[in-house]
From TrEMBL:
Molecular function via GO: glucuronosyltransferase activity
Localization annotation: Membrane
Protein name: Core-2/I-branching beta-1,6-N-acetylglucosaminyltransferase family protein
Keywords per UniProt: Glycoprotein, Glycosyltransferase, Membrane, Transferase, Transmembrane, Transmembrane helix
Transmembrane segments: 12-33
Short name of any one Pfam family annotated for the protein: Branch
Main location: membrane
Organism, as annotated: Prunus dulcis (Almond)
Its membrane topology: Single-pass type II membrane protein
PANTHER family referenced in this protein's UniProt entry, alphabetically: GLYCOSYLTRANSFERASE (PTHR45719), OS01G0201100 PROTEIN (PTHR45719:SF7)
GO CC annotation: membrane
């Protein structure tokens, strides 16, 4: 009883002095550091997504995890960070895709893998150096030290994570990461994308996924492979080793499309590694056939925080033969109507300079040969040779279809519940 009294005695002054401290702190904030209510609001709404990007202390990172992701919507133009990658002979395709996707507010990382000849990689670097627009804006980056990438091997995932890390380091101002290959092409302008994505929660991930592995359990999850791309400087296919392994029991496997639109929040989670899951799974996937079709899906779906906002779509139009072969059907002019009607943001795959691409340029992007896709930002018409007002958005004919698709996807998802099945 005596000790309870003692507690009360010192509790009272403590409470009073804390109140005074908080009061002093609040007034000094109000008078000195920030003067208007608007400024205070904007600091708080931008704090998590913009400022956190520049913190490296572990304690702080752990703090973020317990606090959860940045607040849902930031009323600004969303920005995209692209990885466009290619291999031997893909230079011209990659260049055209880059021109069609270019916008001064975005970030671009270009990568031609080690299989492409040195001359081709140098040509890409010198084209980027020589492009006045890229020099002025400074948002196109070429990975000069090319990676060895084995199709369907874990080196593909490593390459994607490498690009993510470069993009995180180069800019704190992007909201979504999009992984494309040189044989992909946009069906909408960047203005259409900005317009569609600006009301969306910045933490949504568009990743087509399923836990119904079917034949893949036997053929993908149980075999063990080695990817020579991890240690050899000569390109070779992955090879199989025995014995096989059993299915994992400490996490659930997911698979799906290797094309995705990932939130910055999720990319930071994968690259920074303040939680062990992305790293453990990366090691598990080192021996997995076709790791690009599973790594990100398995990470997202095994972390409840991300599983509850995973949108089950890759925003791509990809057409598979029936029965499906290893590669998707190569799109041509006869596919354009279906492609456009899908409302997707991107399509794949195309042959170099296929007439279908000219039709997309003409009807959907309004892009002239050899110039950038026009938009509200363009000055120096008609070729968009200069940046006018980069924040001006002029959605084109594709915006309505994309909005309808994205609206349908986000409407049917009951966010807050686990989206992974
Ligand atoms: C650099 O650009 C100029 C025009 O902008 C062009 O005439 C020249 O051929 C280009 N050089 C290279 C190496 O691409
Ligand atoms: C972090 O902030 C410092 C100073 O505020 C700046 O110099 C540095 O470039 C920032 N780093 C990144 C990765 O944005
Ligand atoms: C990323 O894009 C490439 C095409 O450039 C694709 O092959 C790959 O599977 C994608 N996904 C991952 C996880 O690397
Ligand atoms: C498109 O369809 C027409 C008529 O069905 C056919 O003759 C043509 O070969 C097709 N084009 C391609 C590129 O497949």
């Amino acid at each position: 009883m005596g000790s309870a009294n003692m507690e009360k005695k010192w509790l009272f002054p403590l409470v009073i002095s804390s109140v005074i401290c908080i009061f002093l702190l609040a007034t000094s904030l109000n008078l000195g550091l920030v003067s208007s209510r608007h400024a205070i609001n904007s600091i708080f709404s931008f704090f998590p997504s913009r400022v956190l990007a520049n913190q490296s202390s572990l304690a702080f990172a752990e703090n973020i995890v317990s606090q959860g992701p940045p607040p849902p919507s930031v009323p600004a133009i969303p920005r995209f960070a692209y990885l466009i990658s290619g291999s031997k002979g893909d230079l011209e395709k990659l260049w055209r895709t880059l021109q069609a996707l270019y916008h001064p507010l975005n970030q671009y990382v270009l990568h031609l893998d080690l299989e492409s000849p040195v001359a081709e990689r140098l040509e890409l670097a010198s084209r980027v150096d020589n492009e006045t627009m890229f020099n002025t804006v400074g948002n196109v980056f070429v990975i000069k030290k090319a990676n060895m990438v084995t199709y369907r091997g874990p080196t593909m995932v490593a390459n994607t994570l490498h690009a993510c890390a470069i993009l995180l380091r180069r800019s704190k101002d992007w909201d979504w990461f999009i992984n494309l290959s040189a044989s992909d092409y946009p069906l909408v302008t960047q203005d259409d994308l900005f317009h569609t994505f600006s009301p969306l929660n910045r933490n949504l991930n568009f990743i087509e996924h399923t836990s119904q592995l079917g034949w893949k359990e036997e053929k993908r999850a149980m075999p063990l492979i080695l990817d020579p791309g991890l240690y050899s400087s000569k390109k070779q296919d992955v090879f199989w080793v025995t014995p096989r392994r059993t299915l994992p029991t400490s996490f659930k496997l997911f698979t799906g499309s290797a094309w995705m639109v990932l939130s910055r929040w999720f990319v930071e989670y994968c690259v920074w590694g303040w939680d062990n899951l992305p790293r453990t799974l990366l090691m598990y996937y080192t021996n997995f056939v076709s790791s690009p079709e599973g790594y990100f899906h398995t990470v997202i779906c095994n972390e409840p925080e991300f599983a509850k906002t995973a949108v089950n779509h890759d925003l791509h139009y990809i057409s598979w033969d029936i029965p499906p072969k290893q590669h998707p059907h190569t799109l041509n002019i006869n596919d354009t109507n279906k492609m456009i009607a899908s409302g997707a943001a991107f399509a794949r795959k195309f042959k170099r300079d296929d007439p279908a691409l000219d039709k997309i340029d003409k009807d959907l992007l309004r892009r002239r040969k050899g110039s950038f896709t026009p938009g509200g930002w363009c000055a120096g018409k008609p070729k968009c040779s200069r940046v006018g007002n980069p924040n001006k958005i002029k959605p084109g004919p594709g915006a309505k279809r994309l909005r309808r698709l994205v609206g349908r996807l986000t409407l049917t998802a009951k966010f807050g519940q686990n989206q992974c099945k």
